[in-house]
Queue: 3 jobs
Job 1
Amino acid sequence: MDAQRAKARPGALRLLAALLLAAPLLWTSCGRPSARVPAARRVEPRVRAVLEAHVAAARAGSVPLLLVADAATSAPAKGPPGATPPPEAVVSSGVPFAPGALRDVRLLRLRDGRGAPVPLRAKPLAVWPLDGSIRSALVAFRAALAPGERAIYTLEHGAPPRPAKGAPPGEPPAGAPRRRAKASSPGQRADAPGIEGAVLDESLLPDPDGPIAAVLPPSWYAASQVCGPQLPAIDDRRFPGFESGIEGALARMTPAYDAYGVSCAGAHRTYYDGPHALYQRFLRNGDAARYRRARAEAVWYRQHELRFSPDRRLAVHVCEKEDWTPAAPLSWQVLRRMLGQGMLDDYLLTGDPAAKEAVLAMGEALRLNLPALTGGKEDVLRATERNMAWAMMTLSSYYALDPRPELLAALRGLADRTVAWQRQGASGAFEHDIHRADPSECERGPRGGSPFMTALLVDALMDYRALTGDPRVRDVVARAAGWLAERAITSDRRALRYLWGCETDAYDDSGTADLNLLIVPVFGAAYALTGDPRWIDVGDALADVGVKEMWVKQPKHWNQAMRAFGRYLGYRAALAGPVAEGRLSAGR
């Protein structure tokens, strides 16, 4: 059975304070900016000053950028006035943007804590395929910080400064230095509008593991939709038990999360996409320590769990047979270990070319494998919802970085098969032989479905919709949510059946309520697509039980909860006014 039927002990409430950047920046889909943080979760005084500085820096067309120097850096400690200053280091970061927010990286400008302009280089990492606007940009600059020191810079992303009144065309703004940055490489341009605009440098290389990390407020990450809908952890007043429980479990996990290795049969650390789960944790908190942890997991995955072809055009998980070629269908176990979402996160937030290489190579392996997966004696992708889900996630990640027509065609082909699959039955489930999927879990089940695997497929569909705008996704998700709420729920209405449609086991118990946290994003997605708030009522009721029964004592189960529930919170964050307040009160 995929989930262990045990209760998670409530973790000690931890102050989510150190380096939290969840200043109440104006963001309409995160609720009202006047929302108050409960007293139990207010930050300690020494950190409050940092947050207040973020508030002061957060003006229209700009976002605060927090620089944090590693405590272990070899740079000399900051001494008294007149002492030798710490040496400069290259700082780089992937800065995400919401659709339509930025179309030219040369509009980016950077200022240090004193407001002085800082020379900035930038290049686009990816665009939103629907409108061609920039999804993420790599920015790089130099800064000098002593070990453990922090600084707040301001990244401006609005229109360039206007020239002085009466100045001839091309003249810098009044008071600005009358010189322009010079190109230093063939791929670099120096025609940025305005003296402080970023220099477009297509040859720019990132330094994601340098001695200084640069992070943005979690409200910015949430608004950018870079990893789907999110709600900053510090703003989660409805489910504080999730925040304390998920953090406490990671800190107390025994054996430790990173003590697990690669396993092709048993428990392993990247099940349910560990890099993606850890990046979601970072994005919801916005601090350098969580960034470093997510980054380390992404690098570990590439180093230990991917096998590339000699020309590095294709990559599969190391659990696949050594002699595999695209002519043979990838195994079910391998499909769920090819982590497109996590590698995409790593690239969009760091610009690391190794992450992009992994996304493209896994995607190309899957694209070439589609005929074998779908055209043999069995449609492997429709054998269980999870197979289609991981395949769609991988291809969506590929298309996000390489939006070519042939990739869009392959992705739409998966969507076509998914829509047809659901329509073949009347339940709203993606019906299949659940005995075939796992005989040990159901002795007879020719027409059934898996709620938790369906949740993974809905997650993939929402990624696909964000890239393509396919209107069919709305009906597919709404029908799946209706099936879950009306037919797949247990009779005590505390959980979703582990399997639905098994003739030899009704699974009508709530012993797997920990899976609720993985499944409730389906109701959040249904609300986001239809605007019907009843889906949040259903989701909240199941989430309350899921938080109470949370089982997160191993990487597999921790990833399962973390990768999903943040998205549910992001979906429900769009609730406005009295509707949101009523649900907030009901949860207290």
Job 2
Amino acid sequence: MKQQTSLPAASSGGPSAAKPVAFSETIGLFMPADGQVASDIGVLFVSPWGLEEMCLRKFWRIVADDLSACGVASLRFDYPGTGDALDRSDFSGGLTIWEDAVVAAAGRLSALSGCSRIVVVGQGLGTAIALRAIHRLDGVAGFVALAPVTSGRAYLREMQIWAKMVEEGLGIAKEHRATEGIVIAGLAMPEEIAVDIRKFSLATLGEKPAPQCLVVKRPDRPGDQEFAAKLAAIGAVVADADYQGYDDLVSNPATAVMPQAVRLAVVEWISNLAAALPVRTAKPWLASAEPAVLCGPDFREEALNFAEGGRLYGVLCEPLGERKGATVLLVGTAYDRAAGWARSGVRLARDLAVQGIPSLRFDTANVADSPPVPGLPDQVLYHEAQSNDVSAALDVVERRHLLPVVATGRCSGAYLAFRSALQDARIEGVVAVNPFVFYWDPTRDIDESLRFIPRTLGDYKGRLLQGETFQRLLQGRIDIARAATNIGRALGRRLARHAMPLVHMLPQNRVMRREVVGAFHTLSDRGVPVALLYSENDVGLDHFAEQFGSSARGLRRYKNVDLTILEGADHNLTPEPARLSYFETLSAIASALDPQA
């Protein structure tokens, strides 16, 4: 299909984040049409599930922003029991529970935007859920299917294979790997949902989902072409496009590459469809609209926009009972959404609320649901501008009279929490999980580091003794040259530990040493408790050992710092015992601080 080469420019002040709304046990993000003239079409995003949803989160936001600039409003949302939605213990209703959420979301989109026509956009499992629910929606003018699911059974088998690859890649110990059900990246699909998904088949599709359809197909998946052919056979007008960059998008949230060609194709197709319908005066979004609030048995959560122009998205979680201790600021990791890897941010926030501890989790600019700041680079990790986002989050906490704050995060989030504590005295405690570094050299290439960070020597040694490593080697699934290079680097870092005083004298390491030592002295002088948690064999331990020695003897001068090594944990703290240790450490530090009067 023909593709346009450019998109409408965002306003000079930069886009605002989508507006959170609460309905049907979940949170939706509504993006109104920009300007005074709007299309009569609204777009409903129906998400995939699991790791694919995490990787797609930012892409959904980018497309929604593009559509807004074209005069098209949209809504995206979480299924009950996923993302920022409420948890459920009863899934006996099966997939109908998620279908009901689609129907409720469509109704909310129409009410907020004033549109009478809807285009449903789904990816992966979202296409199957949309097809089951779409006959219950009014005014469906179009359907966009990206990487569609054509067989529920085949999809679940693929998820199980994908899950094993993720577990191997993360280095999760066998005793902590799931042995039953559909579990990927720590996210477990309810069995009742899986049962209904197994029943889904393209052969059961009898009526066209919409008059106009766009299928974005993966060239190496014949089933995607069959999907397009099936829609045409049952009477839909079908266009198609290639899903260029699918694998680069869904492999890892930290390294996900936005598929620009797909972005252009989807926005153009929807814009052309909208142009054929009447335009109307846009319904203004009322800033005084009721807050997006969800309540659980022990907590009240409010999804909100904050910072200048409402450019950031976050969720404030407060206990329903008596407040105790400091507020926890959950700083996101890499490009994971604020809900966290395996919903760890959501779980942590709600567990803290049971202890009487409030929290705020949020997306920094250009991460997940928060749009970028104009003029800043696309790569925001380890960029000093992220400190502005943390400061804005602290302003929210202060306005709500919830100071002081304990800042926490994992990997790049740990780095940002640690560095922010140096700059803002409102942070009175830090819990840093698997920080890669304590100071980032601005001349260092972040993208290169993210894609090719080698493991520790201990991790390589453990893997060499595993039978599955030899099997992967025989199957050609290991890049021998890169593995050898990374092992050599790990060995070099191990040797450097034993020559630590000499290493610190090297010119390229003097700045690093000065910055790290100065940072720890600053927090020590302020009496800020700092808890460092590392998974055993985490790559961040190499940097730690370079600064403080393999036995952590360099930490002895800092009475405010505690170090904990989490046995059997991966970098993401996927195993439950590691998460519990993290929670207990964080709860103890936050509880020990007096809440603001």
Job 3
Amino acid sequence: MSYLHFPRIVFSGDFSSDVSTVNNDTQHYNNATFESSFQLPGQGATNGWWNPEGGATFGFQNCTIQQATNENGTTITDPALDGIIGQLVTGAEGRNSGKMVDLDPDQQMVSELWGVTFRILSAHNELLLEGRIKPTGFRDLQRRQTNGGKPNGQPMGASWTSVLEDVKYGKLAETSPILMALKATTQQNKISINLNGFGYYYAHADGRFSLGKILGSIGPWFENEPDLFAPARRLYGIYQRGQVFGGSNFIFDAANARLSIDLGGSFPIDDSIGSINFSNDLYLAVSKQPLTNPPAIRNVLIDGSQLEIIGKVPYQQGSTWLNSTCGIVDFNLLSDDVVSSLKNNQLILVAASSSSSQYLLIAREAIAGIVCRADNFVQRIDTNQKVTVNLYAYQFGQPLPQTEITITMEPPTSDTPKDKNSPPISITYGNNKPQDGLSFAPSCQTNDQGMAQIEITGNSIHSPRVYIDGQIYLLDYTLANQQPDSAIPGAAPMSISIHLRDDFPIPETPTWSDISDMMTQFANLYPIMSKYFINFADPQAMIAKKDILKFAFTRDIHDPIYMPATRDLSETKRLTILKWLDNPIVDDPATAAAKGVKLKSVDANAALDTAPPTEQQQKLAEATKAKNGSLINFPALTNLFEF
């Protein structure tokens, strides 16, 4: 099962993502060359990009349930038929929902959601459903807007797929037949969820800065399925002349003669709010011959005798179609011929052409119906730590057993030399080196459920990127002897992204010089913290707030209060900081000078700072309230680290 199966609930609205951008630039990690201008907004390497004081928060805004589909395939849009229609989708109560974080400045293409709570509420704040989104990175990063991202600045879109865990149903849920059917159908108290985001505003325009559009769907989850992608068949765009379709998930339920496809993350749109400027009649069909066409700007025509039409895609229903349906289309009561042929033949998306006997190929299913994807494809690994990544293989929607999957490390990338006359101001170091940083088997084999596992071990590395902790590695995977499919967009869906952290032994008695470099880097990269709360480069400030810091550094890494908020540390570095906070020792002047550490006068017995907020802090709090709907409570423990 997946978010496309029945019973299904779809919602749409906005998402907020107040990402920090100082730490997007690798140049800014070099403490020796850091400049104050890097904390100011602007374009290019000489400043902090477009949102340097961001807090990395992620949340739902103005989201409502649009429609629901029951077990027999009937779509419901009338709240009189099910009270779930029109209800609110929001995040955690009393604080921001969670955070959106990159794996690393050298890998920003798999941004993850951490600590995100998902709730469905009535207008009177009555709970219907609540769950925690299992941390997941986005996939299917693809161009969406045909206007090139005007005026928002970001033309790309992407999808997060995950499961809701620890699901709770409110008393009001009992009045919703759809929710009760979902509760009865799904397993292990998990619910599948998919989020398609697009139209994100880098630009300060239209009153939508740091906002984007989001389309969502929830459905049942079953045992032996992946958590972080849908066990679905895949359709890929071929026609690239003005209108580009991306990758789409679809499921075919032969037993019930049904087909459901998600075009919400792939349908080309004319602007940042999901308007469609497209007029051709589009049809889903089954190809009677295998297709391997690569993406092309030329027309690829298919004779009508070589396909079997399933039905028309009803996107021409109006300008709000995408946001009201989330781009999900169901075809029920398929003919016996379609059911028979779709089991082992490719689904295609075609457009009517000037010739009544031919159709223009817009998108096709993967070659031979093959889908191979890693589930937990974003990993953070410490020295000597072992992690297991699950990979799944399917053919025409069915598990592909006893099949070999090969794993290869991508070759090293080169360093970029320092340019003394213009940015970059520091050497930019390459990735995937040293090549012996990871140990793993070169292949694995799927079991009867089409799942294989690869164990990856992190070996000892020592600052290959000098001023950035650890290294980024990409491990590519593919089915052995499988023809490459050039239609698959981008490399990220077929790679495992790994941040291997530096080997860092914990000092027996850590002093400030042992942690000063990493804390100074925090102060540089997180101006929202260093300017308004704690100057991490100042040991006195650290000691004054040591109790709050100890609380934040002991949270689970996926907790919204976890510190650091976005760029995480190795376990040994985190423990070293905690050990120092328990016994804060500042080096004597001679030792500090020898290590290049500047000291300030420190009161090791300083009490927690409980002073009222400054005028600057209060202004920041009011601005955050206007943006996120909640006021920062200074210096309240639970809100200090979650903007």
